[in-house]
Specification:
The protein is mainly β and 645 residues long. Pfam families: Peptidase_M23 (PF01551).
Length: 645
């Protein structure tokens, strides 16, 4: 039996965990839910870095096909069963006598009588998507009984079984600690990239107020090194791209444990053996969200970021950050460990660098396109590039007041000015003869409901909307509104309202879309006079756009036995659909990945008779209605071979 809360025990030991839990991992209580007793492999594990969340369990491979038997991991009853377009698709939650719950997702079919119960409830409520909570014990299974067939439903990217174990408080547990012999792994994790960044206004990495990315080099003994010594000063932090590897697969998995030491002293440890279901959105504060949005690479922060509520850490006095306060050499060791205690170690050196000497100040001509403003770590960063060897000064403006400032440092013909936004928040800055706007509007504090109102737009924040202090920027341009940038993470929804420059005539078909690299993602919104209000959990650029094109329907079969076809909408997306046969509602299953729909009868023995009406409505309110008579399938003719003469 393994207990959470183990202390460090050398290179191959498990990380300690900040949770004050006494959770145990009884070996043999659960059986493996797919092909038990045989060698299996995984496509994902607990703690993998996924879009907007940590992965909550195991993705068990199913030989790239659907229809494998899924077995109850232990005795229990169906606590919840659901059918979803996205997410887990067809999913079963089994509650066990030990108080824990196992979850089985992306299923193809439920076993009977559970399947019949779900179908009957879908017909009663006339809906495909459904969440059901049967009374305790109504559907019980013994350990090893078949509860379903594996599939590819919901948001899965390929056939597999998603499998979770949760404790009585709905925390996600690592199933691999329960001793499943079906999974073997002797392959250590791999370092991919390391980023070092300044974390306050006085921090520097290689003389710059920018993150610097390094590529670790693997040595013959299996350890890793950085090819160069890192130069730094002040408070800095480490972000890391690393993943576990498992024997016999090419998949990448999340890390279970990270430990960092500087000069032999432990400064940071991270362990994701267990984490709360309610805190998965906090993930966006624990990765470098801005880089993930720009490049898709997911760097995990190896320090505790401001605004964190995710209690998975053991750190030094400054939350796992490194303080380089001298010009000496410092050895840093980073150890990463997987669920099977395979480990890898990266060693590198940081040399403290002297602070920049004062720079001379001159007045020069600046081209506006070479002035950039950005907000990083509570700091306004202004960069001004020019072609002369002279260095400009900056004049900041805020509510009519002026503040002059010298550059903080200079590199590659670029003068860099840093301003602590917690003490001063300028609305514009002048360098030489050029003035640019910062579009800084307000300072929004976490855990406080607040709002900001401009002339034609406003934002309302709940007390749960943001992780940390947000320096709100906003700019309206014609029928578009930009709030901060898409690299700024939100914890919860905010409410936005704005009045476009040109109010559309066809408002009932016009909604808000979030613009991302040439694509538009539907958000919705409600009009009140000439103002549209909407909610979002992502920041960036929002545009008003009309969708007047109705959805498409293509039937491939409408016989007395079954109805099949494809539905879709290219702009706002399918909102809902309905099929009637002679006025009676018919369950149409929906694979949203393919846009494929197919019928499922309440009574499989009864043929469809009469007229089919299929109506599909998109999220802008456009509808397409198809009506046709059901018909018998054509009888296939037997092919006859011609005799040779």
């Amino acid at each position: 039996m393994v207990r959470i809360g183990l202390l460090f025990s050398g290179l191959m030991g498990l990380c300690s965990l900040s949770f004050a839990q006494t959770q145990t991992y009884p070996k043999g209580y659960y059986q493996f839910p797919i092909r038990p007793g045989l060698a299996n492999s995984l496509a994902g594990g607990l703690g993998d870095l996924r879009t907007n969340h940590f992965h909550a369990g195991l993705d068990i491979r199913t030989e790239q096909r659907e229809g494998l038997n899924v077995y109850a991991a232990a005795e229990g009853y169906v606590y919840k069963v659901a059918v979803q377009r996205s997410g887990y698709g067809n999913v079963i939650y089994l509650r066990h006598p030990n108080g824990q719950t196992t979850v089985y997702g992306h299923l193809l079919k439920f076993s009977d009588p559970l399947a019949t119960y779900v179908r009957e409830e879908q017909y009663k409520k006339q809906t495909f998507e459904i969440d059901l909570f049967p009374e305790a014990g109504k559907f019980s299974f013994k350990k090893g009984e078949i509860i379903a067939l594996s599939g590819n439903t919901g948001g899965s990217a390929g056939p597999h079984l998603h499998f979770e174990i949760r404790d009585s408080k709905d925390n996600f547990l690592n199933p691999l600690y329960f001793g499943f012999n079906e999974i073997k792994d002797v392959t250590p994790p791999k370092f991919v990239n390391l980023a070092i960044r300044p974390l306050d206004i006085n921090g520097r990495v290689n003389g710059q107020f920018d993150r610097k990315v390094y590529a670790p080099v693997k040595l013959k003994d299996g350890s890793y090194r950085l090819p160069d010594t890192v130069s730094a000063t002040g408070i800095i932090g480490i972000d890391m791209v690393a993943h576990d590897q498992m024997t016999g697969t090419g998949f990448r998995y999340g890390l279970q444990c990270i430990e960092i030491k500087m000069d032999g002293d432990e400064v940071f440890s991270y362990n994701i053996e267990i984490f709360p279901n309610t805190a998965t959105r906090d993930y966006n504060n624990l990765i470098d969200y801005e880089t993930e949005q720009k490049t898709g690479q997911r760097y995990l922060k190896c320090y505790v970021p401001d605004g964190n509520n995710f209690n998975l850490y053991k750190t030094n006095a400054i939350n796992g950050k490194l303080n380089i306060a001298d010009t000496l050499l410092h050895e840093v060791r980073v150890k990463i460990t997987d669920s099977f205690e395979n480990a890898s170690e990266l060693v590198f050196t940081i040399k403290g660098e002297p602070k920049n000497s004062p720079l001379p100040v001159y007045d020069v001509e600046i081209n506006p396109e070479y002035i950039q403003t950005d907000v990083q770590e509570n700091t306004l960063v202004v960069k001004a590039k020019h072609y002369r060897s002279t260095i400009p000064f900056a004049t900041y403006y805020s509510n009519g007041k002026e503040v002059k400032k010298d550059p903080d440092f200079y590199a590659s013909e670029t003068a860099v000015f840093l301003t602590d936004l917690r003490t001063y928040m300028p609305d514009s800055v002048k360098i030489g003869k050029t003035t640019v706007k910062t579009y800084l509007r307000s300072q929004i504090y976490p855990a406080v409901a607040s709002s900001y109102k401009a002339e034609k737009w406003s934002v309302d924040f709940k007390n749960t909307s943001i992780f940390d202090t947000l320096f709100l920027t906003g700019q309206q341009n014609f029928n578009a509104l930009t709030i901060n940038n898409r690299g700024t993470a939100l914890k919860d929804y905010i409410s936005v309202a704005f009045t476009p420059e040109n109010v559309p005539e066809n408002k009932e078909k016009t909604r808000v879309y979030r613009y991302i690299d040439g694509y538009y993602r539907f958000l919705g919104g409600t009009w009140a006079d000439n103002e549209i209000k909407f909610e979002t959990r992502e920041l960036g650029t929002f545009v008003i756009q009309a969708d007047t094109v109705p959805p498409k329907i293509r039937l491939v079969e409408h016989s007395k036995d079954r109805i099949r076809g494809f539905i879709g909408d290219a702009t706002s997306g399918v909102d809902h659909y309905k099929a009637l046969v002679n006025g009676e509602w018919v369950l149409m299953n929906f694979d949203s990945k393919k846009g494929y729909i197919w019928s499922e009868k309440l009574d499989p023995t009864q043929p469809f008779e009469g007229e089919l009406t299929l109506e599909v409505t998109d999220r802008a309110g456009n509808s397409t209605i198809l009506q046709t008579e059901l018909k018998d399938l054509p009888v296939a003719r037997k092919k006859t071979k011609k005799r040779k003469r």
